[in-house]
């Protein structure tokens, strides 16, 4: 079935900021750890936080010592003061948009204004906002409730940040005619307004809508109501397990959106489940090619093909074109990269449950096949490299050993409680560097050792090309996996630097590689094929730009797009061998 995912689906800035703050602090904050009230309205995420030792409490009596996090909804000022008295440390994760509404209400209350809040009575955010009205606040949901207020009062009108924009605008008009002195502050979050507008726009182009989010989430329920009012059949679900294919019979295109407290991996699972359902009038010839492409990507066959193509490109760059062992080197890369990526997914399946649920599901169903094929591929690599010479065989064994050491504790057990990093993989940013070095060894070092070693400067330039392309690829996937990595406590490059800085770093590295490739050709350190590889840099810049503009969403399509960088490198090397320099 064809699925159209709303660009605004999932965590809003405030929720994401709060969750990031809590997870970043989880390993170093003073224990015990509390959130005052549920951090977000999503039971699955709350269950994950509980497993990380972060307990949600609903009363001050439950808190004593340790660290308490104030959730994105905020709290009344007197509650914050009491938390500071009871706890060792208070971390305020109030959403900046909610904080702005609090400041507005406090400022006007000091001037004698009554704070009128358009919102849901009893909602955590509204309760917090009322605490800043100095005892003169009112909550309304309708025009009738507004007209019960004395018209002579000085009023400042604000909105719960996730309130329906049309309702607020309607009440502004009524309030303007009702009160003699009225100040209006539009405190609805811009992301909320955009999310609601996109639902209306999307509803006009789909046969049905699925809204993903907790049943106790006010903004999720509001999205479902807006979708229904737009005239499209709407189904709200918390998880993919609630999807019933019978409910979508007769529908060809489904829209998917999600509340502000719905994590990306839950949205992915819903989208993937819907895509596997066959829509009405959808021919098999359109379904199976998509499923085959996904299978190639999720089974690691496509990344292995990319590695083989990159090895061919490296052999061309090192001018080993006449080397008779070239086919064997390409095959070794294919088998080695297939096996290492397949086996590593089993070792890292905890994070994979959130970052790549469809892939992990495939591995779980066919565990025996993937484990066996990964081990057989490793054995085949050792067998092939013995025929390529002792140097190649020993280098291959060394690369394999280094791969194993990456995940093995290197610190004695008696000292592990004193040292935060006991494995190479524990160091922030180590994954992208290790993957890039491993690929560099397989695609450039092994072929170079198998024949007459190329000039050192040419080999180093080729290694630099491979390192940057693979580093950008690996870090790009870490950008997509931030939420899942935070949940399991991994410290990747985007978690260390932040997503924006990481994206700037990848862009800078790609631009630097482009300049470097031109310099290699001009200085005579490499042949004309290095100019062909400028197209790879352009390709990378394009997908980085599309991701920055939110034109791409995570999934098999984006993964295939990124992995195609290496297939492109192989094609460019072939064109160079056929037609010469550009």
Strand content: 5-15%
The total count of helices amounts to 25
> What distance separates the N and C termini?
43 Å
How many strands, what sense, and barrel or not for the largest sheet?
Answer: 4 strands, parallel
Task: Return the structural class.
Answer: alpha/beta
Mean pLDDT: 87
Rg computed from alpha carbons, rounded to a whole number of angstroms: 28 Å
Shape: elongated
Please report the total strand number as a whole number: 12
Helical percentage: 55-70%
Looking across the biggest beta sheet, what order are the strands in?
1-12-10-11
Residue runs with pLDDT of under 50 for 5 or more positions: none
Please write out the topology.
Blueprint lengths: L1 E4 L7 H13 L7 E4 L6 H9 L2 E4 L9 E4 L6 H10 L2 E4 L3 H14 L4 E5 L5 H7 L7 E3 L2 H4 L7 E6 L5 H14 L2 E4 L5 H14 L4 E5 L5 H12 L4 E4 L15 E6 L5 H12 L8 H15 L2 H17 L8 H22 L1 H7 L1 H9 L1 H20 L3 H16 L24 H21 L5 H25 L1 H7 L4 H5 L1 H24 L6 H4 L1 H15 L7 H24 L3
Parallel strand pairs: 1-12, 2-3, 2-4, 4-5, 6-7, 6-8, 8-9, 10-11, 10-12
């Amino acid at each position: 079935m064809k699925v159209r995912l709303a660009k605004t689906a999932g965590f809003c800035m405030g929720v994401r900021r709060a969750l990031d703050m809590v997870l970043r602090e989880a390993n170093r904050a003073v224990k015990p750890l509390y959130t005052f009230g549920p951090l977000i309205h999503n039971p699955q995420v709350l269950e994950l936080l509980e497993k990380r030792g972060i307990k949600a409490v609903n009363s001050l009596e439950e808190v004593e010592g340790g660290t308490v996090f104030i959730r994105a909804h905020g709290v009344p000022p007197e509650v914050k003061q009491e938390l500071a008295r009871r706890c060792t440390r208070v971390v305020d994760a109030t959403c900046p948009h909610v904080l702005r509404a609090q400041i507005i209400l406090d400022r006007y209350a000091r001037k004698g204004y009554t704070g009128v809040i358009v919102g849901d009575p009893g909602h955590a955010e509204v309760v917090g906002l009322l605490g800043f009205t100095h005892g003169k606040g009112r909550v309304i949901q309708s025009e009738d409730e507004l007209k019960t207020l004395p018209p002579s009062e000085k009023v400042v009108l604000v909105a719960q940040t996730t309130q329906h924009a049309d309702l607020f605008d309607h009440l502004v008009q009524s309030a303007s005619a009702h009160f003699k002195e009225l100040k209006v502050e539009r405190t609805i979050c811009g992301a909320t307004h955009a999310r609601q507008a996109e639902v209306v726009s999307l509803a006009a182009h789909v046969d049905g809508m699925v809204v993903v989010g907790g049943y106790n989430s006010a903004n999720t329920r509001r999205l479902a109501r807006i979708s229904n009012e737009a005239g499209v059949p709407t189904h709200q679900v918390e998880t993919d397990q609630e999807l019933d294919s019978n409910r979508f019979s007769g529908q060809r295109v489904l829209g998917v959106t999600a509340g502000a407290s719905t994590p990306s991996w839950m949205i992915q699972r819903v989208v993937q489940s819907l895509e596997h359902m066959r829509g009405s009038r959808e021919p098999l010839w359109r379904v199976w090619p998509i499923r085959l492409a996904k299978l190639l990507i999720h089974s690691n066959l496509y990344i292995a093909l990319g590695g083989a193509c990159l090895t061919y490109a490296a052999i061309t760059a090192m001018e080993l074109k006449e080397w008779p062992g070239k086919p064997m080197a390409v095959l070794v890369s294919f088998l080695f990269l297939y096996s290492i990526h397949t086996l590593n997914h089993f070792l890292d399946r905890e994070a994979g449950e959130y970052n790549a649920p469809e892939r992990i599901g495939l591995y779980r169903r066919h565990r025996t096949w993937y484990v066996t094929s990964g081990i057989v591929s490793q054995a085949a690599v050792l067998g092939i490299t013995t025929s390529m010479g002792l140097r190649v065989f020993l280098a291959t064994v060394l690369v394999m050993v280094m791969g194993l050491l990456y995940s093995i504790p290197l610190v004695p057990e008696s000292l592990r409680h004193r040292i935060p990093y006991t494995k190479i993989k524990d160091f922030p940013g180590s994954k992208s560097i290790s993957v890039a070095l491993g690929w560099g060894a397989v695609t450039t070092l092994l072929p170079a050792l198998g024949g007459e070693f190329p000039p050192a400067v040419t080999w180093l330039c080729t290694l630099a090309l491979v390192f940057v392309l693979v580093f950008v690829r690996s870090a790009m996937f870490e950008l997509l996996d931030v939420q899942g990595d935070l949940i399991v406590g991994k410290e990747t490059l985007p978690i260390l630097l932040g997503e924006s800085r990481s994206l700037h770093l990848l862009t800078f590295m790609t631009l630097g590689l482009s300049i470097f490739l031109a310099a290699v050709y001009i200085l005579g350190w490499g042949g004309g094929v290095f100019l062909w590889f400028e197209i790879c840099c352009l390709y990378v810049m394009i997908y980085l730009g599309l991701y920055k503009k939110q034109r791409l969403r995570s999934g098999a399509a984006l993964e295939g797009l990124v992995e195609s960088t290496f297939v492109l490198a192989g094609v460019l090397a072939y064109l160079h061998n056929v037609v010469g320099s550009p």
